[in-house]
Amino acid sequence: MTINKKFVDQFAIVTSKAALASSYFVGKKDKIAADKAAVDSMRSNLNNMDIQGQIVIGEGELDDAPMLYIGEKLGTNNGPKFDIAVDPLEGTNFAANNLPGALSVIAIAEKNNLFEAPETYMEKISTKVNEKNVVDLDYSVKKNIFNLSEYLNKKPENLTACIMDRPRHNKIIKELNDLNVNVKLITDGDVCGALLVTDDKYNVDIFLGTGGGPEGVLAATALDAFDCSFQGRFLFETNDDKNRAKKMGIKDFSKKYELKEIVSGDSIFCATGITSGDLVSGIKIKGDQFVSETLVTHKSSGLKKVIKLEQNIL
After folding, report:
1. What is the CATH number of the domain that holds 69?
2. Is 171 exposed, middle or buried (0-12, 13-18, 19+ CB in 10 A)?
3. What is the CA radius of gyration of the chain?
4. Which phi and psi angles does 43 have, rounded to 5°?
């Protein structure tokens, strides 16, 4: 089964309109309002689509509404059945403080082909190398860097690793520094961080560290279309986390998930810029129109590019 290519444009319009809604709050120091604007726009536009959609990756559970919650059904209930993963505003701090890299993100797969993940932390690693036993979550930082160095025929000092600038990563950052690896630190936005391995122009060879589980699933969908590698392991630190995971059918709390276990079959991924960043430019308003840039992928057609849309605001 494949997803009709017509849905690529439709979902790109959904994320572009959510990005526009959020853009009015850029620099206003109110990340909750910026997020709510994106959520409300995304929900409204998804509900107008001829699909039978269900959120499997959202911003929380039912009691966290008005977020797009896990289990929420969307669409007119006509058309194909889709699993949907969303992050209406990835990088809330970026939007609130008018910093680069805020995105509106959605990923779609056929029913039961997208991993249903709780909102918890995930260890993750992505590289442009899709070869077994080169880079692995179970390897030490040193082994991963040496293996990657050998595989890419680059010295460690010519490799670049992207990692979130968090105290929890101090040990990894120190190991990377000791190995003379170039380190690209990001403050937020680990969907974007994981995707920087997809193209040589970003000059990132490996993304690693601990970030959001939902963001890991979103990134994996795009990485699958780029034929890059991804592994993730959820971190369930509280009994609440474990109970939610059990309800979602997760039995092994320490399992390492390969990319194909996270997303399988055909998929679509769209990430629209709210503020300009590495992947795409932000929203630009011109009179009664707006211009958006969206990174789109469609696995079955091989589509993976940035598209620019010019639309009427109303």
Report:
1. 3.30.540.10
2. exposed
3. 19
4. -60, -50
Residue numbers of the domain that contains 109: 6-114+266-312
Question: For the stretch 36-52, what's the b/e string if a residue is b when 16 or more beta carbons lie within 10 angstroms of its beta carbon?
Answer: bbbbbbbbebbeebebb
- Is residue 232 a contact partner of residue 205, using CB atoms and an 8 Å limit? no
- 310 phi and psi angles, rounded to 5 deg: -115, 120
Domain membership of residue 1 (yes or no) is no
Question: What is the H or E stretch that residue 157 is in?
Answer: none
- The reported pLDDT for the residue numbered 93 is 93
**Looking at the domain assignment, is residue 150 inside a domain?**
yes
DSSP assignment of 199-220:
-GGG---EEEEEEEHHHHHHHH
Kindly list the averaged pLDDT for each block of 10 residues, start to end, along the chain of length 314: 94 98 98 94 97 88 66 94 96 95 97 87 94 96 98 97 97 98 94 96 97 93 96 90 85 92 96 97 96 98 97 92
* Residue 163 covered by a domain: yes
Q: Round to whole Å and give the CA distance between 37 and 14.
A: 13
- How many domains in the chain? 2
Separation CA 254–CA 306 (nearest Å): 36
**Per-residue confidence (pLDDT) for residue 242, from 0 to 100:** 87
Residue 232 CA to residue 220 CA, distance in Å, equals 9
The pTM (predicted TM-score) of the whole model is: 0.96
Strand-strand pairing, 229-235 and 121-127: antiparallel
Cβ neighbourhood burial of 87 (10 Å; 0-12, 13-18, 19+): buried
Whole-angstrom distance, CA of residue 203 vs CA of residue 225: 19
List the one residue out of 261, 250, 251, 239 whose CA is nearest residue 137: 261
- Same domain assignment for residues 75 and 148: no
> Does the residue 178 lie in any domain?
yes
Based on the fold, state whether residues 43 and 72 are members of the same structural domain.
Answer: yes
Between the alpha carbon of residue 14 and those of residues 70, 71, 226, the distances in Å are 18, 19, 22
